């Protein structure tokens, strides 16, 4: 498959048909993910595959943690607790992409970028496999109970929840027009495409 076609064809898809991708397919996706650029080769990414009843168990663990640490009588908190219980059930598989955060702030930023690149690789590989995927974060990425469930430390970071499955319907081409990216050309003349 042409890389430009994969880049243009990838979509965030929420509507899934319930089929679960196989473990060998998921392993291929994760192998593709780690081909991300990574300065200093720190390999800061960690992956947790959450499927079947583990999705509900993780949501329940986070919800229980919130119930004990926040004012559950608050309507906003009660809504978040309810959402945590249901959130991971949106897809048959959720891949949590985590980052082991370095104490060095420059390295931590470079490692975060590497984990984001790994997530994009995972999304592109999923598209190439005919899967539907959606990158989500939100408040649940900040909860220590979620980090603990997937084997991260509270100081570490959840970079992405990748909701993964098979699309419920055919995913058509993106009809949005993409404007030309804002580019400043330096040291190139007009013949080279610069100004």
Question: What would you call the shape?
Answer: globular
The major pleated sheet works out as:
4 strands, antiparallel
CATH fold type of the domain at 3-51 and 89-170: NADH Oxidase
Distinct helical segment count: 6
How much is the radius of gyration in Å? 19 Å
Number of strands: 4
User: How far apart lie the N and C ends?
Assistant: 34 Å
Q: Write the CATH homologous superfamily of the domain at 3-51 and 89-170.
A: NADH Oxidase
In short:
This protein has 195 residues and is an alpha+beta fold.
Describe this structure in words.
Helix content is 40%, strand content 14%. It has helices spanning 3-9, 23-33, 53-69, 75-87, 105-128, 144-149, and strands spanning 45-51, 93-99, 132-136, 157-165. The protein has a 4-stranded antiparallel beta sheet with strand order 1-2-4-3, sandwiched between helices.
Give me the secondary-structure topology:
Elements: H1 3-9, H2 23-33, E1 45-51, H3 53-69, H4 75-87, E2 93-99, H5 105-128, E3 132-136, H6 144-149, E4 157-165
Antiparallel strand pairs: 1-2, 2-4, 3-4
Structure characteristics:
single chain; 195 residues; alpha+beta; NADH Oxidase; 6 helices; 4 strands; 40% helix; globular
């Amino acid at each position: 498959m042409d890389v430009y076609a994969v880049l243009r064809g990838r979509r965030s898809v929420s509507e899934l048909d319930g089929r679960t991708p196989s473990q060998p397919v998921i392993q291929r996706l994760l192998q593709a993910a780690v081909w991300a650029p990574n300065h200093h080769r720190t390999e800061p990414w960690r992956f947790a595959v959450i499927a079947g009843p583990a999705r509900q168990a993780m949501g329940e663990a986070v919800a229980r943690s919130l119930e004990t640490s926040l004012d559950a009588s608050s309507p906003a908190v009660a809504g978040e607790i309810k959402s945590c219980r249901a959130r991971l059930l949106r897809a048959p598989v959720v891949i949590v992409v985590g980052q082991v955060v370095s104490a060095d702030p420059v390295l931590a930023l470079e490692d975060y970028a590497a984990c984001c690149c790994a997530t994009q690789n995972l999304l592109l590989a999923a598209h190439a496999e005919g899967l539907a995927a959606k990158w989500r974060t939100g408040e649940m990425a900040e909860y220590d109970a979620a980090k603990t469930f997937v084997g991260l430390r509270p100081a570490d970071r959840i970079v992405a929840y990748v909701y993964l499955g098979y699309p419920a319907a055919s995913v058509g081409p993106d009809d949005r027009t993409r404007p030309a990216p804002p580019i400043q050309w330096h040291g190139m003349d007009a013949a080279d495409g610069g100004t």
